[in-house]
Amino acid sequence: MALLTAENTAFMIFVIFMLIYPSTTDEFDLLNTAYFMAITLMALSLAMIWGKAGILSFGQTAFFGIGGYLYGIFTLNVLGSGATWLGMLVGVLVGGVVAAVLGYFMFYGGVNDVFVGLTTLALTLVLQTFMAQTAGPEWSVGEARLNGYNGMYVPQISIGDLPLYGKPLYFLYFGLLIGVYLVLRWLAGSRWGYGLLALQENRPRTETFGYNVRLMQVQVFCLAGSVAALSGVLYASWGSYIDPSSMGLTAAITPVIYVAIGGRRSLTAAMISSMILLKLSQSLASSAPEYALVIFGLLALLAVLFVPEGFVAALFNLLDRWLFRRPDENARGSPGAPARSGEVSQHG
Amino acid sequence: MAEPIANASPMLVLQDVSKSFGGLRAVSGLTLQVERGELRCLIGPNGAGKSTVFKLIMGFERPTSGSITFDGAGIDKWPTWRRARQGLSIKMQIPGIYPELSVRDNMRVAAQYHVRAGEMDAAIERLLTRVGLAGMSSELAKNLSHGEQQWLEIGMALSVNPKLLLLDEPTAGMGPGETEATARIVENLNADGVTIIVIEHDMAFVRRIARKVTVMNLGRLYAEGTIAEIEGNQGVTDIYLGKTS
């Protein structure tokens, strides 16, 4: 299969740009970009579960919050040079386990389609409401005060006693973003990924070909929950802080908007769109904060009405037709199209 | 037709199977046995319970009472995917293709658990040739004609290397030419040793392919025999004309 596609080219340009970027700018911008990358991991988790498996989840922010809080609770209680790295692992694992448990009860209980969206939104709001009332001193886990809306102090990821800052932090976040992206693309192009694509179109039919559909739904929900939890860990560490607003209604809908605007069926489109929109959001926040959500809402509406495959994915398709003479594949969501490179190594 | 293997257990046994949906008894005390290598037609008027029998065999529905044995194993508690991995396959009444995927990707989705990755492309081409879709692997499934979509679905059902293939109205909506082609496909499959059960309303098609016919009415087994015996049965004719219940 062709490796020279608009999507792969865009990915390479993105990687090269991100590698050169640190030598062209100051530390403030680098930290800002690290923040974008942390949040973009959540967008990737949503593109995986929504775009590749057809499960619209508003719960990614819940796993984001679980990851962030668990990271903080663990690192505040366990001292030592490797504590923050272990904390990162704990945050991701707990996020994944909570997602697996919730996914088990949802999918084996026959909850599907729009009801998954409602259930996951409920989880997010319940967690936010619960965390909001933890301001009192009685709400602490060992050394970690949860602190309600005052927010919880979280140690930064460190090597020895030295918190990562500047370029090392930037490249850590960049490495994790690209690593997760590549793993997700490989999975999307694997036998399992083809199965996910099939089950989002027709679950009973897919089961007649031997796919354990419910198990696969739990697996992808767990995977996406882990990635969202990693996003939360990186976010909390980046700002040394997390509070319940990171799990609120606005927070829950924002990644859905980023992914819808970019293109949910393409991990690359979702990643690039999320990075650009986060940058735009921050620019608007300083000049015209009241318009940021309005503009994003409008873009999402335009995407849903006129470019349902997403603006960035649509651009990939146009370029594929004009430059690479390939048929329109991103729009129809062939598992191989947005995920060709992984598929090649899997299936030749 | 392949000869049934001597002294082998039947391919499928439904023993006193019933299925109720609330107050509606869709299948009532049905006992049915299909031998290895058989090509059996299941006929009956609308509402006779034929499609429900297929759903029970595939595990989409569980029997209210009774038991189902497939290839010597009790499968009552098996989920659909496990039945599929053991060699049960179905072409459903409502088209079960993936319209947004290419013919090749449709076949690939169906075949992944049953064909090794290195043999995938060759296996897909072989199966597409078998169902008359050679050279169409790059087409999007939604762009195929109705008949071609039905054949694609038969090809997908075949790609799991089935021991028992269930075909629910394979000629629905087809013209005479497509129906004839479908009959040839079904006969060839059976000649290759695949046990097949076909639900069909088109009696000309049934006459063409069937060796043995089972007639259902009101969820029960009404008659069973060769096509000649069934066509000579006045009660069966009356059922189709709505004279008896």
Description:
- The complex is a heterodimer of chains A (348) and B (245).
- Chain A has 14 helices and 6 strands.
- Chain A has 348 residues and is mainly alpha-helical.
- In chain A, the strands form 3 sheets. Chain A has a two-stranded antiparallel ribbon with strand order 1-2. In chain A, strands 3-6 form a two-stranded antiparallel sheet. In chain A, strands 4-5 form a two-stranded antiparallel ribbon.
- In chain A, helix 10 packs across helix 11 and helix 10 crosses helix 12.
- The C terminus of chain A is likely disordered.
- Chain B is globular.
- Chains A and B meet through helix 7 and helix 8 of A and helix 2 and helix 3 of B.
Set down the secondary structure blueprint.
The complex is a heterodimer of chains A (348) and B (245).
Chain A (H helix, E strand, L loop, with lengths): L5 H15 L6 H26 L7 H18 L5 H26 L5 H19 L7 E2 L2 E2 L6 E2 L4 E2 L2 E2 L2 H23 L2 H11 L1 H5 L5 H27 L1 E2 L6 H14 L4 H21 L1 H18 L4 H12 L17 H8 L1
Antiparallel strand pairs in A: 1-2, 3-6, 4-5
Helix pairs in contact in A: 2-6, 2-9, 2-10, 2-11, 3-4, 3-5, 3-9, 4-9, 6-14, 7-9, 10-11, 10-12, 11-12, 11-13
Chain B lengths: L11 E10 L2 E11 L4 E5 L6 H9 L6 E6 L2 E2 L5 H6 L2 E4 L11 H9 L8 H11 L15 H13 L5 E5 L7 H16 L3 E5 L3 H7 L2 E6 L2 E6 L1 H5 L2 H8 L4
Parallel strand pairs in B: 3-8, 3-9, 6-7, 7-8
Antiparallel strand pairs in B: 1-2, 1-4, 4-5, 9-10
Summarize the structure.
The complex is a heterodimer of chains A (348) and B (245). With 348 residues, chain A is mainly alpha-helical.
Number of strand elements of chain B: 10
Uncertain spans of chain A = 329-348
What's the number of helices of chain A? Answer: 14
What is the terminal separation of chain B in angstroms?
Answer: 34 Å
What is the H-and-E element order of chain B?
EEEHEEHEHHHEHEHEEHH
Structural class of chain A: mainly alpha
Q: Structural class of the secondary elements of chain B? A: alpha/beta
Helix content class of chain A: 55-70%
Q: Summarize the biggest pleated sheet of chain B.
A: 6 strands, mixed
How much β-strand is present in the residues of chain A? Answer: under 5%
Oligomer: heterodimer
Indicate the low-confidence ranges of chain B by residue numbers. 1-6
Rounded to the nearest angstrom, the radius of gyration of chain B is 18 Å
Strand order of the largest sheet of chain B: 6-7-8-3-9-10
Helical coverage of chain B, percent range = 25-40%
Count of discrete alpha- or pi-helical segments spanning 4 or more residues of chain B: 9
| Rg over CA atoms of chain A | 20 Å
Shape of chain A: globular
